[in-house]
Each structure stands twice: as structure tokens, then as C-alpha cells.
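Data card: per-record layout.
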Amino acid sequence: MEEESLHDYTLDLLQDDSFVRYLKNTSLVGDKDWGTWLVSDPKNQNIVTEAQKILESIKENPIADTELKEKIWQRIDQSTTSTIIEETGFEKSRIIKLFGLALAASLLLLLINKFSFNSTVNYNTGLAQVDNITLPDNSVVKLNSESKLSYNESKFINNRTLELKGEAFFEVQKGSEFIVNTELGNVTVLGTSFNVKVRNNHFAVECITGSVKVKNRQNEVILKPNQSCESNRNGQLEMAENSERYSWINGKYSYHNRKLSEVIDDFQRQFDIKVILPESIQNIQYTGFFTTSDRDQALESICWPLHLNWKIEGSEIIISE
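The structure for this 321-residue chain is written out next.
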């Protein structure tokens, strides 16, 4: 029997009152012959051992959710006193946890899923890779290259919170608060579409539809459709001219007065190639766009307006004045 199947079988047995009573008192009469069952297969001893650990863990193991733990034990305490009448007709007074233990075992399965197993879902994209993700609430995320998105799958419906590194475009279904946390700030919405970019200590958010609250340690701003904000050198959020940054989801990268080094960073990610950019031209301001359909054409779209030259040497591109 596989380990996972053995665990599931143990949990099923814990729903059997007679099995629970056997675990608590192996000499108890009037129950199924679990003793014979125990010696019928060597694996059954493992099942008994695991079942006893599960029952013990209900009482002894720390549970992160204290309120849930107290609620479970309150329900158990309400059903702890029970009387067993054996087949002989004689009544034996015993205080045992019949329904309570079976109930606790059932609820323990939920606790195991909630606290013992890691339910965090991670998405990672590499160079020249874009991933389309549908979240448990049917919201959709387009994750740009060299980015990471993670969330707790088991809690997401009631707590729509994600962690983002890199860049992503979100189309959020209406509902409770939807929060995107980043190392430089967070974005809170109810139902809208927006773009978030967090790279090289720079934080930028663009609202497409609905409204977006953007907050970091310095301040917060509210964005309406076609409004953008970004962090300045001091880390404060300030309104920025909308450059339709989100157009990257359709293969187009647009810029308005951005440093050439930032443009080249995007180019390298999309085409998975190293670009040598002299320090003397890294801060030149660029306004324009390039598409991801053709590498050479994209490079020409960047260099031609700035009167720059470029050439390919081996696996690298060299840009010069």
C-alpha cells in the first residue's frame, strides 16, 4: 500500500467508532475483533501507530489557528460523556470520546491540509517567457519574463493576496479585496485591471480599468483609469505620465522619457540575449516603442531614434555611439 493511500485509509478508519474505541482501550469488549485484524497484516500495525499519533496530536500539537482549535475542542467536550451498553445487557459507565473523537479525526484532516502541508503555489518565468495564469477566483494574471508570483491556494478565495517579484498584468474579478504585495509596496483593488512592475528598486503601477490603491512605506495614491504612479529616488510614490506600459501583454513595449538602460533591460529579457551598453549612454532618455516579433527590428527601433549603432558579436549585442 502506498504511503499516501495508507494515510487516507487510516483517516477512513478513524471515522469508525469501534476502531477509535479499540485505540483507546484494546481490552474493551463488545466491539469488532480489531485484535485479529491487527495481526492479519504487518502493515496494520503501522496504521494503528499512525492513528494513535493523529488522535494524540489533536490534543498536544500546536495549531496556528487558536480560535479554530478552541472551537473544535468545544464541540468535542459537548459529546465526551457516553454510556456503552454491551450485548449482555449490562451497563458499564465509562467516559470516553465516541462521537467527539470521530469528529475530531474528521476535522483533523482539514487541519492537516491547512497547517501541515504547504499550499503555496509558485509561478516562475524565465527569459523570453510569459505565463498566463488563472487564479482560484477566476481572475487572470499575465506574468512577464523573469518574474515570480505566489499565493496560498487553500486560503485564496477568502484572502485574495499574492506576492509578486518582477512584472505582471492583472484582470481581477469583482469581489473582496485583491492585494498584490511586493518588496517596494502593495496594490489593493476590488475588481479592475492593472499592471505592476517591480524591478531594480523601481516600483510602478498603471491602472487600466476601475480604481487602484497603491501604498508603500512613504505614502499612498489612488489611481483611476489611464493613470499611473511610480516611486521616485526617495521612494515616494508620485503620479507619472501614462505610457501604456501594459501594452507588453500584446508584445509591444512603450516608453516615455525612460532611461535607455531600462529599455535595454526589457529587450534582454524578451529576447534572451546579452547587450553591452556603454555607461556613457545608459542614462539617455528614450521615447518610443519596440515589438517582440522580430529582434533586429526591435533593436533598430531603439537605436535609430537615438542615432546609436549596434552590431552582433557571437552571442552578444554591442551598442555604441
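Known properties of this structure: The helical segments are 3-13, 17-24, 34-40, 43-60, 66-77, 99-116, 260-271, 295-303. The chain has eight helices and 20 strands.

See the next section for split statistics.
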